[in-house]
Structures are given as structure tokens and as C-alpha cells.
Amino acid sequence: MQLATAKPKPTPPAYRRFLRDYGWAYLFILAPVLLFLVFTLYPVISAFIMSFQKYNIMKSKWIGFDNYTYMFQDDIFWKSIKNTVIFTLATVPINIIITFILAFFIFQMKSRWQTFFKATLYLPSVASGVTISLVWLAMFDPTSSGLLNTFLGWFGIDPVIWLGQSKTALFSLILMSYLGSHGSGIILYLAAMGGIPKSLYEAADIDHASGWTQFTKITWPLLKPTTLYLLVTGVITSFQVFISVYMMTQGGPNFATTTIAYLIYESAFVFYDFGLASAQSFVLAAFIIIVSVVQFKFFSSDVEY
Amino acid sequence: MARVVFNNVRKEFVDEKKGTFTAVENSEFVIEDKEFVVFVGPSGCGKTTSLRMIAGLERQTSGDIIIGDRIVNDLHPKDRDIAMVFQDYALYPHMTIRENLSFGLKNLKKSKAEIEQQVKQASSILGLDELLERKPRELSGGQRQRVAVGRAIVRNPQVFLFDEPLSNLDAKLRIQMRVELAELHKRLGATIVYVTHDQVEAMTLGERIVVMSNGIIQQIAPPTELYNKPNNMFVAGFIGSPAMNFMDATIENGKAFVEGAQIALPQAVADGLKSYEGKKIIVGIRPEHLYGEEFAHTVSKEHTMDVTVQVIENLGADNLLYFKVGSRMVTARVHPETIARLGERKRLVIDISKLHFFDPETTQRIALS
Predict the structure, then answer these.
(1) Which of A139, A253, B10, B55 is the most buried (most CB within 10 A)?
(2) What region, left, alpha or beta, does residue B254 occupy, with left being phi > 0 and alpha being psi -120 to 50 degrees?
(3) What is the pLDDT at residue A159?
(4) Inter-chain contact B90–A210, Cβ cutoff 8 Å?
């Protein structure tokens, strides 16, 4: 009897084996990569190209550095930069201090009170910026029945036109920021404070360190990474401040509250000059990158808690 | 240096939900000047709480703590003139080793020259000279441990407190550091209170050992006394590895009847157990005091027991034989060439001079004299 011998299966080509082994993995990776390419990388590249064009939806015209030249010669652009820098310098450090102080006191509380304050202070973070701005518009009501003016009235101070005059408009937006959302920063600080081992403070107690020394030599340095994170994200967020300006002052009066983000919006969606808006966006991006790098260089710490 | 005294010290922790928990119950002891005392016991026995009360990191609920000549009940940790090495070392991660060592001295407002000199002295004792500019994360576990010790010795305190300082090290490094700590004690001549759950560490380091369980001090004694004359079944079982074997026995006519053996007791022992005649007692014997018949050269072969071997563990230097006596599992540590097979009967020789007797009701050692 003749025995049937099984034919050896031919080895599939390498690309087939690769697809069989890793195909699904790459398919899953493809989805976010495509989203990134279409909705992030492509818009960035096309905005960069647009910044060298006189944009027209039908046919754009290449104008080289004209948008940039115009922008740097425009007084309103420099005014918006100045306003943005003032807003950032006035809000970010003070907001970090306020956040830190609140977190420090909440950290001393019992667990249930910690939860209460964390939830309460985080609440504004989940509210929309538009809603919060509308509330503040009511608070900044320039008549004597406005909330802040009523408060000033108790001390015999005349009503202030908070948002309607150049000298107080930007200050009003800054004030709004101070009393706004510290919730996420507080949660980060509380987590970082909770991560510092108790034994460090006990060792410091034995090492004759006073409460102040423990704060300056242990707590503050070990919270540096959190502070740096809040500083960098705070600066980026305040460079991009838009909603409150749009909702409350529209950049006025007399450009007193025009920030760079609001200027970009105006260039693009009020004057439909998308080329100029793109150029302004890239200057803002460059500015944010430079400031972030400088902050990392000066404040970065390799110890994380 | 100074002595440490606990006068009827009690510590309770109050939890709103779980109620009151007594961590240390009416603790009384004296640690003499320059003595190395080790607190040992299982987790939650109150040893660390006792140490933290000496440090002032916990306030006792009642009783007095004396360091040197002072009652320190209400003194802040910094005013007790103690230094502590923590289990996790508690090194300040953002400071260099030099800054870690000098932190306490700076807080004491010592002069720069004095700080420099004391740091130098401590670093040379502990071999840290090369590491002074590094940060803790750049150091190995053993080096960090040394820095933690350095931070303690740099201030030259009256009492050193060590809270399980070797528990984070691997086995080899732990042995090395154990030797270094013993040498350091000799060198400094300091009063040291040391907490560990490792009985080998306790036996090798301590001049006296305080064995604790459930917040109560079970026995305070030098290592050999703990090993040879444990006060109760807890101490007997805790000290020694493998742990002491316990067997249920009945005393009749000067003999101890255990399953598989009747042990004729020496007259002095039989006399001591007279009041237990006809009653049940617990007989304790350490695994190393049971011998394979063929290697029982040093003891009389008069007293034997026949057992069925259930498990054999080869440790190289010894073999551990496991077998059941009644309902209790018993271990014998025998010569590695002892002939024993799983499931087969084996005759073991008992060194009756090393027997321990415990009251089954109180679990206390029965005094024979």
C-alpha cells in the first residue's frame, strides 16, 4: 500500500506574516493617528502656509512676510501683547499663591471637610466659561445696584464703571480671575502634599526644624514640580484668555482688554483676514514655547512627590 | 548618653468608627545607659508605637517616660535629645547628602566650622566621604541607610532610636549592615533602642530583647535567656527559627506521654511537674534538639519517638523533617545525611535536657525549681 504523504505548507510571504501578527495592532493605532493628522497636523501646517498668504477661500495669494510685517507694525498688536503680558503677570503668580494657601489650609482639615472643600472649589471648573462670565457681568453691573458696587456703597464709594472704562476694564478681568476657579490647582496641590512622606516631617521635628523651616525647606521645595506645572499651564491658559474678554468687553474700551487671543479671533472672524490671524497665532505659539522653556529651565526640579 | 525608663506607659488610639484600640498596655522597663535594646514582635504588637513615644512622635495616654534625668512626657521631639533612623530612612530627597547630614545642626544654629567638622566626622565613620555631594536617589539602599544613621550620629544625641532600619534591604546587605550597626554601637557607646520584627536581627544585635505581643511586654531578657528560658509559649514560638515545636502531653508517673513516645523525665523535672500529675501540659522542644537516631552523638539515645515523615526540606547545612504528633505539625532540624524517606517511619532522639513545659491554660512556662 502506498502511504499518502502530506504536502508541506508553503511559508507565507513576510508581509503577510507581519499583517497576521501585528495587523490589528496597527489598525487600532491608525485611528488616533488619522485623527491627529487630519485635525491637528494638517490645520497647523495649512495655517503656517496661510500666514504667508492673502487668504481667499477661492484663491489665496502668496505675499511672503507681509502679514508678519503688518502685524509687527500694528499698534493694536503690541497693545494686545502688552495687555496679555499684564494679564498673565497679574494673574498667574497670585492665582498660584491663592491656590496654594487654600490647599494648605484644606490639607490640615479632617477628611470629610477636605472632600467638601475640594468639591465646592472644583465646582466652577465644570461650569462653562460663558456661564461664569454672565454671572460676573451681573456682578460688574456699573449701576449702584450691581453686586460689587453695592459692596463699595457700604463704604461710601461711588459706583465704578468696571468694564466700561480703560483704567478698570483689564483690572476687572484680572479680579474675576482671582476669584475664579482654583479647584483643579487645589486638587493637584493636595495630592502632592499628601504624597510627601510624613516621616520627613517627623525627621525634621527631631532635627529641630521649626514649622517655618519645615515649610520653606521641605514642603515648598517638594511641591516645586506641582508649582511648575501650574505655572506653565497657567501661563499658557492666560496667554490664550478669550472667553471672558469676548463675553464681557469685546476687547474694549479703546482696546484696553484686547488680548492676543481676542485679536486673533477678530482678525479671523470679524475681518476675515485668516492670513493675518494665522501669523498672529504663530507668534503667540512661539511666545508660549519660549516662555515655557524658560520656566522649565529655571524652575524644573527632578524630585517628584 | 542616658537611660530610658517607661513607667506604666499606656497608649490608646481612638477612632470615631472603630472605637478605642490599645497599642501599648502598661509598659514598664528600664533601658540602661549605653545599652543596646531591641524591641521585637509581630506587626501591630506595639513596638514601633513604644519607640515613637520615646521619640515624642506619639503622646502616651498615661504613664511617664524618662530619658536621662528628665520626665519627657510633655517635651517636643527636638527637646528630648534623641535621634531617630526611620524605616524609609526619611532622607530629604531634594537635598544633597551633605545638606541632609547638616540639616539638624543648621537648625541648632551651630557655626559653619562646627557643622563642617561634625559632618566630616560622621561621613568618615560611615564611609560617606565620596557621596556628600550626591542626592539620596543616586545612592543604593545600603548607602541611604548609612546616611540615615549619619544624620542621627552627627548631632551626638543621648539616645538613638532605630525603627526597622534594615527592613528595606536585601538579605545580603541586611547581614552586612547588621554587623556595621553592632560595630557602630561599640564605637559610639550609645544607648540604642532598636525596633524590628526580625528575630534574627534581634538576637544578633540586642544586649537585651523586649518581646511584645498585642501591646503587652511578654519578656525582657538577654538573647540566650529568651532562647533557653522563654516565659511563655508566645516567646518560645517567636524566638528561634524554625519555631519551637509544641506537643500535647499528659504527665503520669514521672513520664510525659506524647503521641508516638513516652518520655521518662529526669527526677528533678518530674518533681517540678508533680502538681500536673494526670493533667495535660504542653511540651516544647526546638527543632534543633531532635536528632536522627544515627547522628545523635551528643545526647543520650534513651529517649526516642517514632514518627512518619511528611515533608523533607533540604537546606544544605541541615534537613528539616516535618511530621505530625497528634494534631500538631512538628519540625526536626537534623544532620543533612540523616536517612529519612517521605511517608516512612523514622526514629528521632529527643534531647530531654532541652524540653520546655507550658501550662495549656495560661500558656506560661511551668517553673520547675
Answers:
(1) B55
(2) left
(3) 85
(4) no
**Is B96 found in the same domain as B63?**
yes
pLDDT band at A1 (very low <50, low <70, confident <90, very high): very low
Is the pLDDT confidence value at A3 over 70?
Answer: no
Q: Give the pLDDT score at A29.
A: 95
Q: Would an 8 Å CB–CB cutoff place B151 in contact with chain A?
A: yes
Judge if B223 and B284 occupy the same domain: no
Q: Which residues of A touch B53 (CB under 8 A)?
A: none
The CA distances from residue A48 to A224, A263, A268, in Å, are 35, 17, 14
Instruction: Residue A286: count other Cβ atoms within 10 Å of its Cβ.
Output: 10
How far apart CA A88 and CA A209 sit, in angstroms, is 36
d(CA A65, CA A55): 13
Asked whether residue B195 is domain-assigned, the answer is yes
Phi, psi (deg, nearest 5) at residue B9: -85, 135
| B35 compared with A1, residue with greater pLDDT | B35
B182: pLDDT strictly greater than 80: yes
A206: nearest CB among B84, B92, B135: B84
b/e code B162-191 from CB counts within 10 Å (16+ = b): bbbbbeebeeeebeebbebbeebbeebebb
Q: How many domains does chain B have?
A: 2
A212 → chain B, closest CA residue: B107
B78 interfaces chain A, CB cutoff of 8 Å: yes
- Per the listing, cell 492670513 goes with A275
3-state SS, residue A299: helix
Residues B202 and B343 in one domain: no
User: B80 in a domain, yes or no?
Assistant: yes
Omega before A253 cis (within 30°)?
yes
- Judged by a CB distance cut-off of 8 A, whether residue A304 touches chain B is no
As a whole-number percent, the residues of chain B with pLDDT over 90 amount to 66
Q: Where are the domains of chain A?
A: 14-50, 67-299
Cis peptide bond prior to B336, omega within 30° of 0:
no
Residue B253 sits in the same domain as residue B192: no
pLDDT tens by residue, B305-355: 889 999 999 999 999 999 998 888 999 999 999 888 899 999 999 988 899
According to DSSP, the residues that pair with B333 across neighbouring strands are B320
Of the residues B196, B212, B238, the one at which a domain ends? B238
Residue in chain B lying closest to A220 (CA): B94
Burial of A64 (0-12, 13-18, 19+ CB in 10 A): exposed
Does residue B267 have a pLDDT over 90?
no
Per-residue confidence at B1, pLDDT binned at 50, 70, 90? low
- Expressed as residue numbers, the domain containing B300 is 245-358
What is the reported pLDDT for B169?
81
* Domain assignment of residue B85, yes or no: yes
The residues that bridge with B21 in the sheet, in sequence order, are: B13
Q: How close does chain B come to A203, measured CA to CA in Å?
A: 7
**Are the CB atoms for A105 and A189 separated by under 8 Å?**
no
> Measured at the alpha carbon of residue A32, what is the angle toward residues A27 and A36, in degrees to the nearest 5?
135
Determine phi and psi for B29, rounding to 5 degrees. Answer: -165, 165
Residue type, B274: K
Whether residues B290 and B209 fall in one domain: no
Kindly determine whether residue A221 and residue B94, on different chains, have CB atoms separated by under 8 Å.
yes
ipTM score above 0.95: no
Superfamily of domain A67-299: MetI-like (1.10.3720.10)
For residue A143, the model assigns a pLDDT of 87
Quote the mean pLDDT of chain B: 91
Contact status of B165 with chain A (Cβ, < 8 Å)? no
